[in-house]
Amino acid sequence: MVSLAQTSVVNTVVGSASQLQTLVLSVEDTRHIVEHVGLDALMDEMIARLIQAFEQFDPAQTVVPVRTGFSYEQPHVGLVEWMPLFEKHRQIVVKAVGYHPQNPSLYKLPTVLSTVSAYDPKSGHLTAVIDGTFLTALRTGAASAIATQHLASPDSQILGLIGVGAQAVTQLHGLSRCFDLKQVLIFDRDPAVSQTFTERIACLGLDHLDICQAEISDIVATADILCTATSVDVGHGPVFPDQSLKPWLHVNAVGADFPGKFEVPLSLLERSFVCPDFREQAICEGECQQLKDLKSIGSELSNVVKNPAQYRHYQQRFTVFDSTGFALEDQVAMNMLLDYATELSVGTLIKLESATAEVKNPYSFVL
Amino acid sequence: MVSLAQTSVVNTVVGSASQLQTLVLSVEDTRHIVEHVGLDALMDEMIARLIQAFEQFDPAQTVVPVRTGFSYEQPHVGLVEWMPLFEKHRQIVVKAVGYHPQNPSLYKLPTVLSTVSAYDPKSGHLTAVIDGTFLTALRTGAASAIATQHLASPDSQILGLIGVGAQAVTQLHGLSRCFDLKQVLIFDRDPAVSQTFTERIACLGLDHLDICQAEISDIVATADILCTATSVDVGHGPVFPDQSLKPWLHVNAVGADFPGKFEVPLSLLERSFVCPDFREQAICEGECQQLKDLKSIGSELSNVVKNPAQYRHYQQRFTVFDSTGFALEDQVAMNMLLDYATELSVGTLIKLESATAEVKNPYSFVL
């Protein structure tokens, strides 16, 4: 094990067994990167990189299968699944993500635990393993920011947040980088979670914002932009009523990630432009699973970003971003962090795969 | 990052964020374990643990989906895929495995590169990441040894090896622990590979064995047990002719792991008891893909091990073990190595997943 010198991580040239090392970024390493770059600069760069990735996204070159995994009721409700991506010739990225809503109460752990692995398709070598929890939060906030930039009224000032757990922090962060927000109305079914929200976003330096707890009905009647990021149980959605909405309301529906789980009223979806991050997956796990007529699903976010003028008229209408999580976002976030790891020489290179110069002998490494 | 003290790895009790560490076993760590335990003892224990796992295997408790992944022709022929396993309540194991037949010639790397990850289904926590290359070699040898023990003639003395790359080393190793072998007849289409075989198995201490290079026709006419472990190209099988075989020949067909790739003549399969490691996968990627009549596929190895008496009469008939790789074998091998890592205090604990006491703030770990 050696500490990382100046090495290009993402495009590591596979040479021989002696170079077969995997970059492992610990939480400490990520902290070092965030402290060096700054949270705002990191979010801004994430948004910029993700816009560029959407513009360049070519499904013929980057294959993104629907995630698969294991979901279960015992010992607690949860799932562990894999979100793979293959950018031909360049990189394979697999995010393993666990969703266990009882983690906070039972284990004092976040609901989402995650790691991301990158492989070199030339040889199959595992080039890097990094935390996916922070990265997922960051990219989910960035994706909503991009969708909102394209689909919400540009002078939106009032943000509503229904569910103000971990995801709400990055939703607000991303949006605050793109909109001149004045007021944030928040609700969480757990009052203790609402109460800590201001404290939790203190690091974002948004002191000018008027942040108020409010009833759901008041939030939806007032908000220009609404983010739902709840752990609503399967079959218990939607999480807000379809009444008294501003006619230009844009919703970022972030919570749905499970068959049967959804947050947005069907009647609102039916008269909105619904923009999924990843259509095929949104139909299975997102708000789109409510739409029996698949024709009523709008373009994916990558298409909206490619042709912004074509979608600008929706900024004065109801729009819903159906965010289920898209592996391209994880790839972009991972590569940004790996680039900073290289630049700042953080991370640990570990020889994890047993390979020696004598490739035809699986035991030679012990001799 | 701290070095591993005496901690139970496999059954780590998830406590709180401060305990959320992942055990990473480097190649050095694995080497330490192998040197301490010894290759023969490790293979013997692998065989014993795998027999026990087969005996206890309950598909209702341990879910093993068919592997999925990406396969491609460019920049070189290859695939990277994931073999997941979920033992309910206890463990999720995912092996990532790359198969790139040009690795040895292009990069001086093994054809197979692999890592294995284990997750705690209580919280989704990644408990361990270890090399999968050595582990795959070991468990593939052990699986063939177990199949051969159950299905070959007990006094088999002559082993034929067609394809004597990395896999052949562990095939011979596993079989040498269960049979009183006298002679090994070897063939590889690359003479350079044949020439180094004796040298590569020197670590096995099998000096009493008569190891001879031979033509394929002589090998199949003489062998009691035959192992095929080739990188035959798709559509170019079988790798030996169906002629002059001993009527009790047992074949371990190890190479097939790709749609269209197979090693055993169909005519031999049709008059053999064909025992797949994992039926559903063998039908897609193994020798079983040649058998259009699925009824002609025999029981899986786990069933044979559960009811040995029922299958003993096949020891005097043609039998084929269709080994495509079964995630249960990987789980058993991983847990054996993790148990030794605990016992010997090797490995590195890394805090890889960003989680802090403040579970509702994805940014709190940087504050």
From TrEMBL, chains A, B:
Stored Gene3D superfamilies: NAD(P)-binding Rossmann-like Domain, ornithine cyclodeaminase, domain 1
Pfam families for this protein: OCD_Mu_crystall
Gene Ontology CC: cytoplasm
Domain of life according to the entry: Bacteria
Name of the protein in question: Ornithine cyclodeaminase family protein
Organism from which the protein derives: Leptolyngbya cf. ectocarpi LEGE 11479
